[in-house]
Design brief:
The protein is of the alpha/beta class and 179 residues long. The chain has five helices and seven strands. It has helices at 19-30, 60-71, 88-95, 118-130, 158-172; strands at 5-11, 35-39, 74-79, 108-113, 140-143, 150-151, 154-155. It has a five-stranded parallel β-sheet, sandwiched between helices. It binds flavin mononucleotide (FMN). The site of flavin mononucleotide has 16 residues, from helix 1. Flavin mononucleotide (FMN) is lined by residues 13, 15, 18-20, 80-84, 114-117, 146-147.
Length: 179
């Protein structure tokens, strides 16, 4: 391996102290020797998707998002569920790449970590597959009751720790021997 695998991590929660953000930090720490995690910080800066703005010169925040996606070897999405669906800011971000197709063929790990989460998880799988993400079942993880399993910056549930490692390794195994 000559260079670390670049993973762009997108958190579907923009709140301070988000459990999903903590999960991203834990995962980045688990794989720090072989992988460079770059946190996408611009979710709140993306304008509301409007096809009229989706031109050859889109808003700068959109261009920056697309460039970060293109530069990444893989993408990690960690998100809660809101009101039985995908958080609006995350869905908005995905709407911006329907025409530009940065997810096409890109390895993605999807973790939906919430109180329940099933509706958001299924909805995201449908969206990510329609934009041609490389998202096999082995790269998808639903974590219900997340706040009882992730506490004080740690995964306190051993079964969950193993499941998180399994989804990450499903993606990272694609890069073995490629760098
Ligand atoms: C407005 C709102 C709506 C929510 N709706 C749901 C829901 O439909 N399903 C669910 O599992 N959790 C729901 N939750 C709970 C959050 O998903 C849960 O607190 C999650 O852990 C938040 O993730 P975060 O810690 O990364 O911000 C909702 C929370 C808020 C603030």
């Amino acid at each position: 391996m000559t260079r670390p695998v670049n993973i762009l991590a997108i958190c579907g929660s923009t709140r301070k102290g988000s459990t999903n953000e903590v999960l991203i930090d834990i995962i980045a720490d688990l794989y720090r020797s072989s992988t460079e995690f770059i946190r996408f910080e611009g979710l709140s800066d993306l304008p509301h998707f409007n096809p009229d703005l989706d031109t050859e010169t889109p808003p700068p925040a959109v261009t920056a998002f697309r460039e970060q996606l293109r530069a990444a070897d893989g993408i990690l999405i960690c998100t809660p569920e809101y009101a039985m669906g995908v958080p609006g800011s995350l869905k908005n971000a995905l709407d911006w790449v329907v025409s530009s197709m940065e997810f096409s063929g890109k390895p993605v790990v999807l973790i939906t970590a919430s109180s329940m989460g099933e509706q958001a998880h299924q909805s995201l799988i449908r969206t990510l597959l329609v934009i041609e993400s490389d998202l096999p079942e082995s790269s998808r993880l639903l974590i219900p009751f997340v706040k009882s399993k992730v506490r004080d910056g740690k995964i306190v549930d051993e079964q969950l720790l193993q499941a998180v490692k399994a989804v990450m390794e499903s993606m990272l195994s694609k890069f073995i021997g490629q760098q």
